[in-house]
Design brief:
This protein is mainly alpha-helical. 74% of the residues lie in helices and 1% in strands. The protein is built from 23 helices and two strands. It has helices at 2-16, 19-35, 39-42, 44-49, 52-57, 59-62, 74-85, 92-101, 104-129, 143-149, 158-196, 200-215, 218-247, 252-263, 274-293, 301-304, 312-339, 358-369, 372-404, 409-425, 428-452, 454-469, 482-490, and strands spanning 132-133, 139-140. The protein has a two-stranded antiparallel ribbon with strand order 1-2. A hairpin with a 5-residue loop joins β1 and β2. α11 (158-196) crosses α12 (200-215), α12 (200-215) packs antiparallel against α20 (409-425) and α18 packs antiparallel against α19. It is globular and about 60 Å long. The relative contact order is 0.20.
Length: 496
Amino acid sequence: MIDMVTKVNDAINGFVWGIPMLVLLVGTGILMTALTKVFQISHIGYWMKHTLGSIFTDRHITKHTGTEDKSISQFQSLCTALAATIGTGNIVGVSSALIFGGPGAIFWMWIVAFFGMMTNYSENVLGIYYRKKNDKGEWSGGAMYYLKDGLGAKKGMKQIGAVLAILFSVFCLMASFGIGNMSQINSIAGNMKAAFRIPTLATGIVLMVLAGLVVLGGIKRIASVTEKLVPVMAIIYIVGALVVCVIHIDQFGAVFGAIFKGAFAMEAVGGGIVGSGIKMAITWGMKRGVFSNEAGLGSSVMVHSSSNVKEPVRQGMWGIFEVFADTIVVCTLTAFVVLSSGLVDLNTGEVLSASEGSALVGEAFSTVFGKLGPAFIAIAILLFAFSTVLGWSHYGTKAFEYLFGSSATVVYRVIFIVFILFGATMKLELAWDLSDTFNGLMAIPNLIGVLALSPVVVKITANYVNRKIKGHNERPMLSAFPEIQKEQEQGLDAGD
């Protein structure tokens, strides 16, 4: 049965992650970058000030909402989104990219991230603009809403928008069990067994209980956990990786050289055919880049839409920062740790170690930290992957809510928690393959929506820039729905 599932999945995966799909993903980012006049660079000081900088200077950003308010703070929405994106992709995914795509894969991961910033920005702008409140008073937003109410509002597109919204929700639901659950838990269980000899079943049971305590509490409990967990885990990992990089700083010239040579096939992967080398570098760099930062999937929009923000562009800027932090910072550090450790031949791109996945990264850390290296990575995987499970539980909940109503979401949460046990004991290869497939399937309807609604993103962006940066007196564009637009305008202030 598993072999049959694997064969079917391989066929779908090959179709989904073919060159046309990668072109669609990167092409959308390129288009949005051009249409917004390279916003991620032209306004880098502004969005950095109003994301990372605002955490330390603007109490409104981190202030918790009251018990009667079902939304979460902007900082909590970022942390929950980062919880879902900073996961095994930053460790296992980078390792896989280096093994199968060579050092050049990292360059293409950067390219995906650069343009993905504006894809993620666009998704979040649309998510806030088309979000609604459910019967519990919670904000509900995401690709399904801008497909149905945005794309569907165009002439002759009502049925297409509605169908694409349902397809996205179904794919998201399936993805939540793959990328958001089983692949993450599988990595945790494997590492706990390798590093501390803890049986995978025991790990699965403990994680199932812990996740249940958080997930069943809904978005506010998830957000309250992730806002504490994400900064701590990210800082610890970044500091550890920086120590390794500083110790091996003499290798950085060679590392950069290997990345750029490999990206353009000046050296083939493992001494193979040059054309094959560049294809592998591009494919694995892009696949693992998307797996890591999720730009184009439409996933993080669902938690960003739960924010108490009123300006769509403000949440869009958090989307830019999310991709920057995940790929440009964390993934790059992981790559430099491995490439500078001596475990990869920087001339040919060949991996000189028999280790794979997180074990390769653990071995790289051990060149500085000794026996503590693999243990450090095992703990990092535990924190990264578990936080991803928490974030994705919300994504799946919102997809389930769209399909079956808010009152039925407890059913999904229980099933999601039970699947944690399956993830701890299943085959790693199948878990990762399923994740890649569902990722790609999610991206298709989402990117159709982003492309079709790109003029809306441009108008909202221009409106914000004119008002907030150029000082023009214009009516803000806050919602596609008149009643929500009016309500948001009444509460608008400088912190939004």
